[in-house]
Amino acid sequence: MSNRVFVVGVGMTKFEKPGRREGWDYPAMAEESGSKALADAGIEYGAVQEAVAAYCYGDSTSGQRAIYELGITGIPIVNVNNNCSTGSTALYLAARAIAGGFADCSLAVGFEKMQTGSLESQWTDREQPLMNHIQALAELQEFAMPVAPWMFGAAGVEHMENYGSTPEHYARIAEKNHRHSANNPYAQFQNIYSLDEIQQAKMVYEPLGLTRLMCSPTSDGSAAAVLASERFVQEHGLGDRAVEIVGQAVVTDLPSTFAAKTARALVGVDMTAAAARKVYEQAGIGPEDIDVIELHDCFAPNELLTYEALGLAAEGEGHKLIDNGDTTYGGRWVVNPSGGLISKGHPLGATGLAQCAEMTWQLRGEADQRQVASAAAKSGVALAHNIGLGGASFVTAYRSANR
Question: For a 10 Å CB count at each end of the chain, is N or C smaller?
């Protein structure tokens, strides 16, 4: 059984520097985003039949504690943790409940209360999930700390060595995303930086010229989405604002992740390419049909690598999109109109659902000053990409239901 799945309500909080909002705990975050999503759908929490809660940093059953702020009705609530793709994992499971006919209305809520600074392991007395990836990458590029910027930075260095991209290309990606976020009231940062300011910021990974302004920050925040079946949409008169998920796939590490012996494979490019192919086939679309994209720019090099993985450019040619202005307003696609992870922020459990919210607003024509005109047109198509190392890559395609 495969029923059509629709996003009928979305909501999110402003993403904040950890601890900036005093006393702002995860139940309050989830209540804010979840209430907004329900209000956007025009339904009460009692209509929700299943819920999925997404977070990485929290004790077991934090999802129940958070979602109980919306109501206590006895419905199934599942807690998920899938590294940086945790929010998309919740969306995927909530969508599968609808597609499989197990529910007519489901809720995905993601939240994170984080600590400042680079991500650190919470469990040091056991094997690290990324140890195989780290050891394999250390055979290709000299190990450096912190680990996450080293991994993605090393993949960028590999691209420079093999294909001729330059440190300036990666800085220009960050410049674009900071510029885009100036029009996003939900973004953690809304400052516009010059290329020189980005390049002169605190250095994080010297071989690539990766500076702090080219890296996503840790963030507090939450996002939520209400999903519904076609029957629910019709019964509640939601067709005019519903956005259909027309393709969705998740791919975990492939044999090539390690066998290819490349940094790009170890940071998930093969996973993303495989997920994108599945989604294009499901939706009957190609890269040329897409208008707006939210992708996982945890570090600037990953945005460039993802251009190629999604088929926007051939392997080794992602930097040509930057040279041609193809990924901003006036170009072939607008990539990360929200500011992306680099500028909007990256509360791990909320990121994938914040992407869903942005894509929904874009397709409805509700993105205000950051609106991509073609996305709100009759043929508008949106794509979201969210990756977690260790690993899982999610790609989701959206189209308005009333087209």
Answer: N
